[in-house]
C-alpha cells in the first residue's frame, strides 16, 4: 500500500492515524470482526453510533480511558487489534472525509465525529 519512496513528510505527504469506527444501519458493509452476522450493526442507528463515539471521545479527552484501549474493545474496524492504528497513508488512500479530517488534525489531536460510507469515526493523528 505505501512504499518508502512516497514518504515526503509535511506538505501533503503521508500521515499516520488511529481511529475508532462504529458501524450503523447506513454503513455500506453491515458486519465486523465483533459482529460477523451484523446483528448489532443492523439495529444501530447513526444517532446511536454517534452517541457511543461522543462518550468514548469524552472518556479519552478527560483521561478516563486510553484511545487504544477503547479502539481495541469497541471499534468495528479490524485495526482494533492494533489499538486502532491504520499505519501511514497518503492522499487518495482513504475515503475523502476521513482523509480530510486526518490531514486537518495536528499530531496528538482527536477529531470530532467523521462520517464515511463505512460508518462514524473518531480519528487521532499520530504522525
Automatic annotation (TrEMBL):
The species this protein was found in: Arachis hypogaea (Peanut)
Gene3D superfamilies recorded: 3.10.50.40
Domain of life (superkingdom): Eukaryota
Name of the protein in its database record: Peptidyl-prolyl cis-trans isomerase
Biased composition (Basic and acidic residues): 8-17
GO cellular component: cytosol; nucleus
Function recorded in the entry: Prolyl cis/trans isomerase with specificity for phospho-Ser-Pro bonds.
Gene Ontology MF terms in the entry: peptidyl-prolyl cis-trans isomerase activity
InterPro entries to which the protein is assigned, alphabetical: PPIase_dom_sf, PPIase_Pin1, PPIase_PpiC
